[in-house]
Amino acid sequence: MIEHPVRVHPSADRLPREEQLAWKLAAVATGTEDLDTDSAAMAVNRVIDNASVAVASLLRRPVAVARAQATAHRAAAPGASVFGSRAKVSPEWAAWANGTAVRELDFHDTYLAADYSHPGDNIPPLLAVAQHTGRSGADLLRGVIAAYELHVALVKGICLHEHRIDHVAHLSAATSGGLGAMLRLPTETVYQAIQQAVHTTTATRQSRKGEISSWKAYAPAFAGKAAIEAVDRAMRGETSPSPIYEGEDGFLAWMLNGPESEYTVVLPESGEARRAILDTYTKEHSAEYQAQAIIDLARRLREKAGPLRNVRSIVLHTSHHTHHVIGSGANDPQKYDPSASRETLDHSVPYIFAVALEDGIWHHERSYAPERARRPETVELWRKITTVEDPEWTSRYHDPDPDRRAFGGRAVITLDDGSVIEDELAVADAHPAGARPFDRSGYVGKFRTLAEGVVTESAQDAFLDTAARLAQLSADDLDGLFPAVDTEAVAAYDTRLPKGLF
């Protein structure tokens, strides 16, 4: 691996493009050739994972709206598929609809380092373009692995959150690079596309603050759509704001640490295996990743805690990110509001801990149902739960050693009689270092659970067989990566939506 320093340069420096971060990212993407066997197997897992959460979200309003917008943009053959529809649409609109379906439940993969990310968000735009351009499964795999490589490197090296910039700015760069790798575009073309994509997808984190709206699901889909459009323009010879990262009026200078910005991004050498996807992990529970271990901890504490009416207070000692983003340190009263949106509740670790402690399970729908959130005894317990930042947990969150890195916390439950119950959990059970790491069987089980009642057993089998053979699929076979569902039921739901422009 090579460490690349990245800092602001005045325009007078005329920084050579080969020394710019966007070029180095593009070179890593276009240099992705022989695929690491383990990385390819993990990419298959993530294709399965994405389909799992997409089919489970088909009758949710944001997904239905995105699908309606997409299917209004039918494409001449070949086009791209949309989850829950038989239509073939323009690839950027397929990326929009499918990206929203994948993200809606907050239930797919994650990577946490200096910043946050959901690298599986790269897959919908790559799959859409692969279908539209007649690429093979092997081409798609190359693009996915390249996109993960760029995404993980950016998330490790450049923190957006401390400047309240949304993490999809890193996603759009990674997707553009993945598309370049998949299509075997020249490095110059990919360089221009990355810069255009970053320039057009830099947004604030207000989408994840206060009363969180449906835009949380749309944001990565928008980044994927923008990346496809950026690649299209770059392929037609159009250029972009340059250097987008290092320029004196660019990303680092005005969005991040200012004119004195300096970051280090670590990228693989030419010919080095692309294995960053193996550093990422998925979710067993439908909630913000930093709540995964907290849910497992609550389930473990349930018997020890005894009758919850006897609880005086619960304090979760955890990392800076957990405390300030999904904990009481966010200072968002909405995180304690029984009428808050689902998007807000899945970013409220006090709510999540309360429900997991009461129920001993977590369900992607029932745990967020309005009647569940408004249950009086739940509200009473919920409002007794606070978080505090613990320097040790913050340090472990950022530990460079994967065996020590931790995203959980310590729960201190004080009962009315003054007695205290404590326990801690470093990583979720499904984490690679957890009690029950997800392997292929875990991904398959998650798919079958979420597809139940939506996808017939035979259609489930067909999808899983197709996904397992991803490296051998022809262009025509990629349709099989969209599990067959009851499209009539989906269409009946869609007809109840208000109309828009399209």
Kindly describe this structure.
It is a single chain. By secondary structure, the chain is an alpha+beta fold. The protein folds into 2 domains: 22-261, 2-methylcitrate dehydratase PrpD (Orthogonal Bundle), CATH 1.10.4100; 289-425, 2-methylcitrate dehydratase PrpD (60s Ribosomal Protein L30, Chain: A), CATH 3.30.1330. The protein is built from 20 helices and 8 strands. It has helices spanning 21-30, 37-56, 61-71, 91-103, 123-133, 137-157, 168-183, 187-200, 215-235, 251-255, 292-305, 320-326, 342-345, 349-359, 370-373, 376-382, 391-397, 440-451, 457-468, 487-494; strands at residues 2-7, 80-81, 88-89, 262-267, 311-318, 385-389, 409-415, 420-425. Strand 2 (80-81) and strand 3 form a beta hairpin. It is globular, with a radius of gyration of 22 Å. Residues 20-262 form the MmgE/PrpD N-terminal domain. This is 2-methylcitrate dehydratase. Residues 285-470 form the MmgE/PrpD C-terminal domain. Residues 322-341 are annotated as: Disordered.
Task: Indicate the structural class.
Answer: alpha+beta
CATH architecture group name of the largest domain: Orthogonal Bundle
- General shape: globular
Could you say how many structural domains there are in total? Answer: 2
CATH topology of the largest domain: 2-methylcitrate dehydratase PrpD
Radius of gyration from the CA trace?
22 Å
The termini sit apart by 47 Å
